């Protein structure tokens, strides 16, 4: 069977602190890129650094992404950054709906607007969803279903090829590898998400859409999550700031 692409998305969040440190980190990560053939690497640095880092790379083995964009394509929105702006400085992707942005006020409708604006500008989307907690009564499933249904409202089937879904349970973010979600639970949730997608579109489209896992992915748990979690890759936070650790995750993706 033909192996599918494995996505590894690095979410640097608001780190590192200076452009000098960001360049150093990027140059370390860049060294890993030529070894990739089956893995799609996307680096999402702070937007303030994106343009400078883009200048340090001319190859095709990695792409850049923004961590967020504004809901509107343009206008008087002090402090905000538009999809067209991030595209113009080299972002092929943007994260949308990250729980840290949702906690600042982004609603499901805002996430849908951002998704549409990004696609309209030709920026591919890494759409984050994830429950705050897991309850025994399965309430988290309706929560996830609602996040997906609203995010994909008015998104045409033809646009799905420009969307990657990243399942990030909020309770598993920013912990250690031991606290990440168990691969079997990831698998179960991914199946559920694909079922929701197939209800919105069709089975073929639902199966074709890449679904990533995020939440304390580290070198030690990457292999099990990839083999048993039923995912097409990872969204990596803190481990993407440590080149050796991140290198192991990339090597795992490459041999998956
Ligand atoms: P983490 O972050 O890998 O540090 O848990 C993931 C994320 O928030 O995207």
Report on this structure.
With 256 residues, the protein is α/β, with parallel strands linked by helices. It has ten helices and eight strands. Strands 1-2-3-4-5-6-7-8 form an eight-stranded parallel barrel, surrounded by five helices. The protein is globular, with a radius of gyration of 17 Å. The structure holds 2-phosphoglycolic acid.
Global outline: globular
The helix content, as a percent range, equals 40-55%
Q: If you average the pLDDT, what whole number results?
A: 96
Pick out the low-confidence regions. Answer: none
Radius of gyration: 17 Å
Helix/strand/pairing class, anyone?
A: alpha/beta
Largest sheet composition: 8 strands, parallel, barrel
Strand order of the largest sheet: 1-2-3-4-5-6-7-8
**Strand elements, count:** 8
String of helices and strands: EHEHEHEHHEHEHHEHEH
Cα-to-Cα separation, first versus last residue:
13 Å
Individual helix count: 10
Note the beta-strand portion: 15-25%
In short:
With 256 residues, this protein is of the alpha/beta class. The protein is built from ten helices and eight strands.
Q: Could you give the topology of this structure?
A:
Layout: E1 6-11, H1 19-30, E2 39-44, H2 47-55, E3 62-66, H3 83-88, E4 91-96, H4 99-102, H5 108-120, E5 124-129, H6 139-151, E6 163-167, H7 183-200, H8 203-208, E7 211-214, H9 219-228, E8 233-236, H10 243-255
Parallel strand pairs: 1-2, 1-8, 2-3, 3-4, 4-5, 5-6, 6-7, 7-8
Helix pairs in contact: 1-2, 5-6, 6-7, 7-9, 9-10
Bound molecules: 2-phosphoglycolic acid.
